[in-house]
Amino acid sequence: MALKGNLRDFSITQLLNLINVAQKTGALAVEGPTEKMWVFFREGKLAYAQTGEEDGSLAFILHKTNKLSAVQYRAIHERAGNMSDKELGLLLINANYVTQQDILTSLQTYFIGVVNRLFTWVEGIFRFENDALPPENKITVRVSLENIIIEGSRRVRELEQLNDEIPSLDMALKFTDRPGTNIRNVNLSVEEWRVVSYINPKNTIRQIATTCKMSEVEIRRVVYGLIQAGLVEVVRPLGAPPTGGLRAPLSQSEKDDRVSLVNRLIRRIRSI
Amino acid sequence: MQTVKMVITGPFNAGKSQFIQSVSEIDVVATERKISSEAEKVKETTTVAMDFGRITVDNDLVLYLFGTPGQRRFDFMWEILSEGMLGFIVLVDSTRPETFREARSILETFRAYAPTPYVVAANKQDKKEAWDVDDIRIALRLDKKVKLLPCVGTDKETVKTVLLELLYSILAEMDAAAGG
Ligand SMILES: Nc1nc2c(ncn2[C@@H]2O[C@H](COP(=O)(O)OP(=O)(O)OP(=O)(O)O)[C@@H](O)[C@H]2O)c(=O)[nH]1
Ligand SMILES: [Mg+2]
């Protein structure tokens, strides 16, 4: 029987722990709300990983890990499109472009990156196919899961903390009016400046993330830093539709009724 | 007969049930359970769905006080409870700084549900380990416009003050809305 389930009930950390302890061989397929990933294991070790979005070819991975330039990647993609990864690897080594070690390191970095991204998924259906092997002619690696699990749990903790601090991305941000703070005097990264330039009670955090092409985790991380530094605070977005409470448009007599109601409550509580 | 409600929220063991009990005319209809998890076994029982207290104002007005469950795994109740509330009160246990982050998170979550006024009460101020209100304000990163009130859940007078301050904020908010 294949292992199947939902990440809500059985987390990536728990899955990797199981695969590690039981020294499993097979393929883990995870389908999130927007993306799919496949991770292959051999005897409890990470062997290969692929995302549904990215071209997982060796040329792409070498490019992503800065071993091939964009021009080189495009040239290979066009001219050696049908070459298998193993053939391409051999060719690149023989042509002195990269070393065998470069290739293995790049693949490891990329595969671990894929698994690390999985740790941030809270929603998704998983399925583990026992004994399924990576596609033929792909180069595989052998990476122990212990470090990946420890690093991943750290990320999960960070994520939980960020979600705690900024539970809703539908809120907006404004600069604090604490005297003596001036955002211009703070050293910010390019990424942080981009976010800062959109801070305005009219923009929700989610809108800023979309505009800056940042993931939920990334925007939370930046906003968290700005909040902790006392530079910005979370506010309700201006012009947001009221979701209950007393803000619905009221006629004058309804307003008077409300005021009288609250005054009755006040008198009653004073008398308790 | 008209009913209105206020929500009393805050981390586990902050004193929400006690707060409501101090002013409710009925025994709080609590959904208390014995605590099973060892980690949270600082007391015998905890609220699992909600607390529920009542203050009758007159023949045609009743105020309900709803207390949220403190344990995070019941937070699916929060949004339901918050619907249509007049305002909400966040209680923090002044003696347990390790819960301040969670209090902050609960505050942000409720603020996102509805644009209603709220106040924060620094509870258990009678205990000698209690943090000063001013320090709690900084730890919770509360803006100076947000009311942070000292409170002792077992002392009816301080509980009344917290409720009244929330009602004053609601009045002020209506004034501001009417003016602008
Ligand atoms: N000294 C002191 N004790 C308090 C005060 N308020 C509440 N307590 C005590 O703190 C403990 C927790 O109070 P509860 O009212 O059960 O707290 P709660 O927030 O409803 O807890 P959960 O429903 O489990 O989240 C109880 O033992 C109360 O008697 C206070 O102001 N001072
Ligand atoms: Mg309770």
Secondary structure topology:
The complex is a heterodimer of chains A (about 270) and B (about 180).
Chain A: E1 3-6, H1 12-21, E2 26-31, E3 36-42, E4 45-51, H2 58-64, H3 70-79, H4 85-94, H5 100-119, E5 125-130, H6 145-165, E6 172-175, H7 190-197, H8 205-211, H9 216-228, E7 232-235, H10 252-270
Helix pairs in contact in A: 1-6, 2-3, 2-5, 5-6, 6-9, 8-9
Chain B: E1 2-9, H1 16-23, E2 32-34, E3 45-47, E4 51-58, E5 61-67, H2 76-82, E6 87-93, H3 100-113, E7 118-123, H4 133-139, E8 148-150, H5 156-179
Parallel strand pairs in B: 1-5, 1-6, 6-7, 7-8
Antiparallel strand pairs in B: 2-3, 4-5
The complex binds guanosine-5'-triphosphate and magnesium ion.
Largest sheet of chain A: 5 strands, antiparallel
Mean pLDDT of chain A: 87
How many β-strand runs of chain B?
Answer: 8
| Strand segment tally of chain A | 7
Query: What is the distance, rounded to the nearest whole angstrom, between the alpha carbons of the first and last residues of chain A?
Result: 65 Å
Secondary-structure arrangement, i.e. CATH architecture of chain B:
3-Layer(aba) Sandwich
Give me the strand/helix succession of chain A. EHEEEHHHHEHEHHHEH
Q: Extract low-pLDDT stretches of chain A.
A: 242-247
Percent of residues of chain A in beta strands?
5-15%
How many angstroms does the end-to-end distance of chain B come to?
A: 31 Å
What class, by secondary structure content of chain A?
A: alpha+beta
Compute the number of helices of chain B: 5
